[in-house]
Write a structure and sequence with these properties.
Blueprint lengths: L1 H32 L8
Length: 41
């Protein structure tokens, strides 16, 4: 049970990391094209 939980949590973290990276790239692109002032914050 513990190994299964570790595998599931690791996989979940990996998926979250990919989603976060994708969202960050998309938001950054939007900010650059829309309002350049918000890029740094």
């Amino acid at each position: 049970m513990t190994t299964q939980f570790l595998i599931i949590s690791a996989f979940g973290l990996f998926v979250l990391f990919l989603l976060f990276k994708y969202e960050g790239k998309r938001k950054r692109g939007k900010k650059v094209t829309g309002r350049g002032g918000d890029f740094d914050s």
